[in-house]
Amino acid sequence: MKIRAIKDALDASVIAGEDRLETVVEHVYASDLMSDVLAFGQPNSILLTGLATRQALVSAHMAEFKGVVLIRGKKPNDGSAEFAQSSQLVLLSTELDMYDTCIRIEAIESGDAPKTMPRAVHGSREDTLLHHQFAVEGSNFANAGNVSTEVKSILKTIGFDPRLIRRIAICTFEGEMNVVMHARRGKVTLAVAPTAIDVVIEDEGKGIPDVEQAMQEGFSTATEEMRARGFGSGMGLPNIRKNTDELNLASVVGKGTTLQMRFFTQKDPVSPGSES
Known about the structure:
The chain has ten helices and ten strands. With 276 residues, the protein is of the alpha/beta class. It folds into two domains: 3-115, 3-Layer(aba) Sandwich (Udp-n-acetylmuramoylalanyl-d-glutamate--2,6- Diaminopimelate Ligase, Chain: A, domain 1), CATH 3.40.1390; 120-264, Histidine kinase-like ATPase, C-terminal domain (Heat Shock Protein 90, 2-Layer Sandwich), CATH 3.30.565. The protein has a five-stranded mixed beta sheet with strand order 1-5-4-3-2, with helices on both faces. A five-stranded antiparallel beta sheet has the order 6-7-8-10-9, with helices on one face. Strand 3 (45-49), helix 3 and strand 4 (67-70) form a beta-alpha-beta unit. The termini are far apart.
């Protein structure tokens, strides 16, 4: 695929190599471990990494890569741009995280419209007070709820109002259970800013063919085993919609689902001395 197609799919900015966007790459390699890049990377590849360092660019150059994409909006300030230009590397930057970046690039080859997988809402980097990420394993009912419990504990420690914490905990647990029941794996990202709390749940799974139908109360694709465990009544997504201040759900069949939930901190002001 051409680097220009990758740039467009990621809505990326060009830091260096504007004149080389028509370059064709044969492989995409995602890693923050430069030793692995040198050991396993194939020539004519493009590197996806969160390391905005000159060493990452040098590693890509040594492995005969054609370009580097910096994720999470990172921009180098150590001469990387100049090195990329002199080494004939294309250097891009995208606001997406590694998961969404890989999903969008895969969508190029499969023919799916990458725009159906939106950017995750993590709040601006300038005002984020806290940022945590948790892994969720599909079909692991024994540990289901551990992430939601941890999120609730973090928010209680900070001192948010119990009413706000309750809404966030309910939504996080519903989303976590959807990953456990319907996906291979997923991740939960918690971002706390002064005015809002964002919880983003992304999974690799079957996806949702009809999002509007899935949002209807009572609609469920749960198996009998799931129902026997007390889940699958078709109230998960409607419950999330009821408890969030802003909700964005997008899904690609066969790829996965991204659930973005925002809760405004001013809506439930802190009540001193209150307990949950």
